[in-house]
Amino acid sequence: MAEEAAVRAQAEAVRRLKHDKADPDEIAKEVAKLLEMKAQLGGDEGKHKFVLKTPKGTRDYSPKQMAIRERVFNAIISCFKRHGAEVIDTPVFELKETLTGKYGEDSKLIYDLKDQGGELLSLRYDLTVPFARYLAMNKITNIKRYHIAKVYRRDNPAMTRGRYREFYQCDFDIAGQFDPMIPDAECLKIVHEILSDLQLGDFLIKVNDRRILDGMFAVCGVPDSKFRTICSSVDKLDKVPWEEVRSEMVGEKGLSPEAADHIGEYVQLHGGLELIERLLQDPKLSQNKLAKEGLGDMKLLFEYLTLFGITGKISFDLSLARGLDYYTGVIFEAVLLQQENEHVEEPVSVGSVAGGGRYDGLVGMFDPKGRKVPCVGVSIGIERIFSILEQRVEASEEKIRTTETQVLVASAQKKLLEERLKLIAELWDAGIKAEVLYKKNPKLLNQLQYCEDTGIPLVAIVGEQELKDGVVKLRVVATREEVNVRRESLVEEIRMRTSPP
Predict the structure, then answer these.
(1) Got the DSSP string for 35-100?
(2) Per-residue model confidence (pLDDT) at position 339
(3) Cβ(208)–Cβ(231) under 8 Å?
(4) pTM for the full model?
(5) Three-state SS across 147-161?
């Protein structure tokens, strides 16, 4: 049949493209065409080959994983609220032009939705650009907000390391005209609080300033037109050695070897206040207006961080670049440190778990009159944190409860379903978290086993004798201790026994 021959030819074309390592988009287009042809052929051909899987770079979350995730979210949200933040939400897709030109070299990772004859749309890439659009659209000049939502990136995912194509971001931002470095210092304090609270292990918050970077590029002889592209090369220093970054700058990006070597001298530097003081005296940097401004603010920032008592975990690091185009001032990134063994002087970084910075021009890009709203913010890398905690739970074999049920309403004899239902309704109406097994006459042993399996701490047992006496037998699952409690005191007794210490 002609159709089958066409399908075979299309399959061969796809194989060839894969073999030649063609452009992934081109391959995807041809694969889609192949699947459409197969579907039109009908018959059983497509049926038995259907694979049940989540799309590349995504995952499901089981109840156990959600319990861990909820714990993390609660810690983060309570920190944001402790600092007086309000919460907002924005659509999962934006107009394509809203996102275009805001992410530098990362723009190619934006998911564009299919053009269906209406507006051209893209899935949001982060929560910062939608926030800036929200401020400009609503003419808001002053807000402290947090936003927790999913974002989308056409990245090549390394899912074991917590990198996905669909993932949550937890953002906290302060927008408004304030005295320098006070909101910036608070953002760093928030990162410090969250990472300490989640007990992820040792961490370091690296800090730099876009103005210091740009000033450094200028005095090293980088042409203005190459600032952004050289910046994204420097941004790779936490992943690849300097030699590789240098050859990319010189070989691919056409920077002179002298300029690259000058940059190399600076980007190896990291320290604290003493380094800032030293650079303020640096004959080249101190002559650059931008760098001088940035260093002055960095000094002020470190003074505030000293007052907050967190400088022990902060490092002023000249190699920190953060590739996004919209940063204008302070930038920072938190990394977890892993002590490989006792002989290593410097702890090894196991990856970034939070990042952020100041972006004073982004809102102005959306405002018809170009009115600027200064902003500084932080994004907590929830997926990374989550995969670390998940691995830790797996390793420790800690039992995680996936429900919050306080009590199971059970019966020891038959024909007591009505009484169980009456009692559970009383408990639910009093705000007690309770369950009942969905059987008319369940065996007591099965009911107790259910509590063991799911971690329910108490069982309220109704029996004929208890009904006559107006009591309920309350059994503590862990110790098997049983007490008779008057029906009217039951709610109070359950609350007392299950309230957190």
Answers:
(1) HHHHHHH-TTTTTTT----PPTT-----HHHHHHHHHHHHHHHHHHHHTT-EE----SEEEHHHHT
(2) 53
(3) no
(4) 0.82
(5) EEEEEECCCCCCHHH
